Amino acid sequence: MAMEKPVGNACTRLAEILCFLAAAMEYPQRSWLTPAYWAALEGLLHEIGSISAEAMFPSYPASPEQFEGLQVEYTRLFINAVPHVIAPPYGSVYLDGDGMLYGASAERAKAFYRQENFELRGSHDIPDYLGNELRFVALLLEQGREAAAELFLRQCFRPWFGSFYQRVSRESRHPYYVVLVSLIDFFTEEEEDHGS
Amino acid sequence: MAVKMTRRRFLQSTGCAAAVLPFANLVQADDSFVKYPYVSPGSMAGTQTVTGGICEMCFWRCQVIGKVRDGKLVKLEGNPKSIDNGKSLCARGNAGIKLLYDPDRLKYPLKNIGKRGAPKWKRISWDEALDECATRLKATIDKYGPQGITIFPHGSSAVYPMHFFEHVVGTPNNSEASFFQCRGARDLAYLATLGVPAGEEVDMPNAKVIFLLGSHLGENVHVSHLKRYLKGLENGAKLIVVDPRFSAAAAKADVWVKIKPGTDTAFLLAIMNYLAENEKYNVEYVDDNGDGFDDFCEGIAHASLSWAAKICDVPEAQIKQVADMLSADMPHVAIHPGRHTSWYGNDFQRERAMACLTGMLGAIGSVGGFVRPIGPKLGRFSWPTPMKEHAEEYSLRRLAKVHKFSPPGTPTDLIRNAALTGQPYPIKAMVTWGQNPIQTVPNQAQTIAMLEQMDFVLVCDVMPTDITMYADILLPEVSYLERYDYIKRGTQWDFAEEHQQYIAARMPLVAPETKDHERKDSVWITNELAKRMGYGEHIKAKSAEEMVDIMLAGAKPTLSLKQLRAEDGIHLQEGEDPYDVELDVVFYSEALEEAGYPPVPTYTEVPQPPAGYARLVYGRLPVHTFNRTQNNVWLHQESTLNPVWLNEQSAKKMGLKDGDMVELVNDQGVKSRTATVVKVTPGIRSDTVYMAHGYGSMNPALTVGVGAGVDDQSLISNPSIDPETGTHGMRNNFVRFIKDGKELSIPA
Ligand code: SF4
N or C: which end of chain A has fewer CB within 10 A? Predict the structure, then answer.
């Protein structure tokens, strides 16, 4: 039976993983999406023991065509498609009624950041962008503010992430992104055995 | 994903190999967040007012201010300093925020690695995108000459690239379709008659009679335009509306002339002939300023009231009534030249007749008449014209010896035909900037065939419209709320008020920079292209800001952006009296005669609906700027469908009632892709049906507009070309309905 590690270490691990997943949700470039990165993702899946996700996980897109395929799919899902991008990675698109960026959920996220003494560097950056929210949780965890991290996930992130997750799972033509959002889901979902 | 392990267990498990994987080493350091000093709740910065905005939800360019709260634009309002729109904005102007924060906006340069029409886009850097555009445009020039490139621009941000391609690169193949199709025939007809383009600045507030022929003000909303109209009505102007439909304007009219579509010129000729025969025109003005009036009178002598009454299907007495009303109050008569004026392919002649009628009444420079407001002076800014002669030499209009009174640019048809046939020369690269020719130019199949034969297609836009699907390289532009841009200038909207002039340059209300996109403005993009194509030496302004400052420096007294900003976005100065200006009126035009066109306004019959069909006419709704706004949820909610208006007697005979869903099919067998509701009304002729344009988008992924209403454009398969100008008349298409799979004839 595995020995429990101190909470601090678990927090740091989770922070690292969330940063790692936030980066994985950026536009695929060879500069960072290396075979080592890919292997780390695969290792993560293996350790979690998700057989179906592991089975789905494709091999590293080594050829230029394969890599381009990943970029094309990223663009279609998250950047632009005619006439609608499939799954914009911004909270308020899913939450605040009329599908806009920078809606009320963005304001809530911004207020939360400030309450925890953080602020986005770019004054016009969109607060409830997926990557920003994940990195913010990681920042809190790095500082050991686990309760605040949990609260942010519950109040700000999870309310929209479920719809985003479903949309990506349903619409993605590349399993890589299905697996990625599943991993984000796994690492951000509220746990019933909280504190056990 | 079936997950067996919980997160907590996973993280706490030292047996977990992943726990020792070096995730941190794989991720680049991120600096999205900075420390934020604690600020107690309630002490946050309040809402800031940012001035200097200019609306572009339509092209009226109302002056706006933005309420910005903590980096976010929360509300748009009219600039209280404006002497044009004032504090008012229309519904579309308000909905600009929806465009600003639309998740569908283009974000990065994209390259299509799939097919045109079925794109597969990947994100590329600006350098890659610009290098590729420049290389491929240069290759076209090297192989086919500059005329091998065509540009389809639209909107103020497209002016800079349009002039670059026309003047510096040297292609005459500029299809500024919106201006061309909307106002081109009108402005050219007024130029040929009064020596000035028509504009819309008739003095309605102070008119005794307002005459609208096909204009449906109120459905067509421009804030200061409407103020003029409503003030005129408030001041007691009589209103004459000529329209086959009981439009919003007709509902306010003293006289509604329910004219048979396509016959307006006959109606105008009869009025003018009656005025001439009975000496009820402004003899003094015509004697002083008229050119060829006797020949003109001779040329229209056939146009008796009874002749027109038969053609127009209007009582003779009503034509006389209108003529007498105009005459009784001349010269204080506002004859509105109209806006979207390409209807039937006989439009130049109709607009000529409008200008002649204005001249006959002496309603030029008069209180309540056709007035040319005197706006403030500005410095000029444009690209040099090293290739002017080359462009003229290769003008398709000149080579084909057609459309000698065409608006600037080249008729879309000539460009499309040349591209499709390779004659008189091939056109192999296309640059589309803010225009969506798939939805704006009739005959989609031919437009698509033109696109398919191109060697290279570059599209620059704000939103992913239909045309973007055909781009090889797609460039993202900043929106009108985030950029510097050309200057709006004018005078107070009511010419009778204190004479004032205003200058307002478009300035950003919010900064365009954020981490999640790389949009650029058209001056930057064009300059970068110009440098890479080897035209860098011709660049006169390094940025949009500099361009605007050059123009402002030429104002008298000289201005700058800095000063404009200090003046809350609008500079006001003393104006000049616009009245008492006289213009010569060319009643009989030798220039037209020499070019082979009728020298006197002439009525040409238009095709008539076959039995069982009605003519399809289209118009607009106050909450939409055609397909530009069809994806705007806020506006869509205001009017989700475009009902098709049907005469109540016809409906009865057809067994249709208000609210029934129907599809439409035209006389060439083209069916609408979708259905819409019937609006049964006595307020339309039985030979005509009507709907608002800009509905029924075809793309299934278009969650807002898809299948909502019917796309009238898809039913316009038979455009008529106006001989003088080359503009498309789009109302010679005939439809009937389909209900429950059965085609229903429309009784005449
Ligand atoms: S009329 Fe409306 S949409 Fe047009 S510029 Fe003015 S506010 Fe904007």
Answer: N
